[in-house]
Each structure stands twice: as structure tokens, then as C-alpha cells.
Amino acid sequence: MKVTDLExxxxxxxxxxxxxxxxxxxxxxLAHGGQPQEITLQQLLEQxxxxxxxxxxxxxxxxxxxxxxxxxxxxLSQKNDRxxxxxxxxxxxxxxxSIPLPGGVTMKLTQKGRPQTVELSETVDESYFQKWGxxxxxxxxxxxxxxxxxxxxxxTWYQTKWAQKPGSFAAPTASLHFHEQEINFLKHRGxxxxxxTLHVGLGTFLPVTAEDxxxxxxxxxxAEIPAVVWDTLIRARMDGRKxxxxxxxxxxxxxxxxxxxxxxxxxxxxxxxxxxLIQPPYQFQVVDRLLTNFHQPQSTxxxxxxxxAGLEKVKACYQWAIARNFRLFSYGDLSVWLK
Length: 339
Prior knowledge:
Layout: E1 25-29, E2 36-39, H1 41-46, E3 53-57, E4 59-61, E5 65-68, E6 71-78, E7 83-87, E8 98-100, E9 106-111, E10 116-120, H2 126-132, H3 139-145, H4 154-157, E11 165-168, H5 180-189, E12 192-198, E13 221-225, H6 227-238, E14 243-246, H7 248-258, E15 263-264, E16 270-274, E17 289-293, H8 300-309, H9 311-323, E18 334-338
Parallel strand pairs: 1-18, 3-12, 3-14, 4-11, 14-17
Antiparallel strand pairs: 1-2, 5-6, 6-7, 7-10, 8-9, 9-10, 12-13, 13-16, 15-16, 17-18
Helix pairs in contact: 8-9
């Protein structure tokens, strides 16, 4: 698939800068004509049958974005005691150059690239990032707000209600549409709500630079599916019940497991790192229903939705939604695609 196939235009004022609850919902039933329609969030809940599986991602977003004056640094992973992999605009900085950080810490650039390697003047732990760090909001939200820093409400807005396992550099944003009352409604209805983990990785922040997605190198993401969840899913599929994946992150975890990209530990849990890139003509092995936000042009996430629903169908439905002022991207509205 060419990256240019994933292009579409949209008015900048539709980029959502805060969530709206309840969100608007675009529904596309691909088995019955695939015509876009708007339904309410409550109507969506009532259309998920008892016995079906509703899969959510329980990852938690890390507060790893540090500002050094106007310089924005994303701390990715700790290599050793004081050495870190980071992401920041390093072009004008020389190897060995020191940069003062908040809290009296100094950062020295030791290796360029993407990501870069730096050495800190002292060891820092998560308490440092909790005090000085910010959640890594997507750049398009910063642009739409004309404000690079987070607001206090983002602490709640940009975490799911079931965020448990720290490790993500972005929120699984389809989950931001659902609060406890929606999940409890599904459970009381007889829908099985199950949790998996996928920590959203660096690829969220890096643009696709290859002309063809086949040449795009996906950054690996850690995924984990408990044995009881996978076994329940296998039985459900054998019984003909449907699997609803809440978001592209839950989808990548499930399809990675189905594709043999995760390994079983001694307890039967599936876990490991995945670099799965889902694009047409990928055939989904697990997911029957995809709930997801509206995604940016030329993104691997839009490629995933296009693999599920068909590129031309997705682009046509996006234009239908844009014409009706649906809100876009991480804090925007929800789309639901039924095979």
C-alpha cells in the first residue's frame, strides 16, 4: 500500500482538543451495505449481544515528556543507571553537549539518531517524571490548542478508566469514550469484558517516511494476553460469538497472538514484542468488530482500518463524517466497523 493512498483532507477546526462525553458514534455495517449512519453511544451498547466478547487495553500512559525551556524531550527507556534513550529535535546539538533539565538534572547527548541516547547527571526514577513530567499528548492536539503543555484535565482525559499497567507513550484512545457505567451496562447485559495489554510504542510519534508501507519499519510494542482471556476467546469463536476490539491497540495485541508473534509462558499467558503492521489485504483472524477513533492521514492506524473495512469505504465514510462535523483524532468521536 502506498502512503499516498491514505491521504484525505479535513478542516483543522475538527481536530478535538478535549473529549466530549458521550461522544458521537459513526456506525458502518459492512455486511449490510456499509452505509454510514450516526447512532448514540447508548444505542451502540444495546447492539452488542450477550455472550459476545468486548476486549479492552489496560495499559497506562507514562508521564515521560520533559520540557527544558522550549525544548521537549520524550524519555523512552532506561539503558542503564543514568543512560536513556530519548526522542527530541537534536539537530542543533553537538555530541557531548549538556542540556539543563528541571530539578537540577543535566542531560548530555551521547549519540544521535532516532531515538537518541543521553546520559543524565544523576539517576532518576518514576518519581522524577511524576513531579516534572507531562503526558505525551499528540502534536496535533498541541497545535490545535496553540499550547504545547498539557492542561490539568489531561491527567484524567488522557487515561482510560481501567488503566492499570504503566508502559504506554500514547493512550488507547478508543477507550476514552467509555466510562464505568458503559462497561457495567455491558456486563449486566451478559457481554464478556476482557482485558489485554499493549503498550503503545514510539511509532505513534514518528511519521511514515517510506513511500510504500511494505518498506516501513514498525517500532516494536510489548503485548500480553492472559491465558484465561485467550482461552475464552477461542471458545467464543468456536461458538460463533463475536469479538469486539476496543481500539487498534487491542486489535494489534489480538492479531499478533493469532499470527504467532507472541509466546506462551509457563502459565500459558501470551506475551512478547510485536511489530505487526496491518494493511490491505490482511485477513483478520480474531477481530469481528472494530471500535476506533478517526485516524490521521498517511498513518499506519488508518491502514489498519482500511484492511478491516476497505480503503475506499473508509475514505468515503470519513468524508461523510467530516461533512457532518464529527470530531477527529485522539479526543475525537468514535467509529464502529462491523464485518
